[in-house]
Amino acid sequence: MVDLANGEPDHQGVGVFMRAGIADQDVNPIEWTISGGIGGRGLIPTRDDDSFGIGAFFIQIQETRFSGLLGVDDEGHGFEAFYNVAITPAAHLTLDVQVLDSPLPGSDTAVVIGLRMQMKF
């Protein structure tokens, strides 16, 4: 559960998520998509406010004359993982990594590494 007053999770543990969607092919180039993963908070002893998440997605793109001419692949997929360290109740440091396989021709798989510092005043 998330505390609506501060937007923070109230409980420790692990949760699973999944979502799937389909689109009207007359108005959207995406045929269908699916994503899922796991997330959690407070799994390491004495690290009650640390959190983590791991997720992946897959997108099926419909083939059209336009995409065929451009050489666009008919799928895209990716992966993301993060760990959020609660340095203090008001300071959090998050390390994030994403791996994205683009459906665009000539594009290499992208690996994006991020670091974020959040301070609440």
Brief rundown of the structure:
The protein is mainly β and 121 residues long. The protein has one helix spanning 65-70; strands spanning 13-22, 30-41, 51-61, 75-88, 91-101, 110-119.
Strand order of the largest sheet: 1-2-3-4-5-6
> What characteristic shape results from the CA principal axes?
elongated
The counted number of beta strands is: 6
State the helical fraction.
Answer: under 10%
Report Rg: 19 Å
Quaternary status = single chain
Q: Helix-strand pattern, N to C?
A: EEEHEEE
- How many discrete structural domains? 1
What class do helices, strands and sheet pairing give?
mainly beta
Mean pLDDT: 87
Euclidean distance between termini CA atoms: 24 Å
Please tally the helical runs, counting DSSP H or I stretches of 4 or more residues.
Answer: 1
Low-confidence stretches: none
DSSP strand (E) fraction? over 45%
Could you give a short account of the major beta sheet? 6 strands, antiparallel
What does this structure look like?
The chain has one domain (13-119). It is built from one helix and six strands, in the order βββαβββ. A hairpin with a 2-residue loop joins β4 and β5. The protein is mainly beta and 121 residues long. The chain starts with 12 loop residues before the first strand and ends with a strand. It is elongated and about 55 Å long. Strands 1-2-3-4-5-6 form a six-stranded antiparallel sheet, with no helix packed on it. It has one helix spanning 65-70, and strands at residues 13-22, 30-41, 51-61, 75-88, 91-101, 110-119.
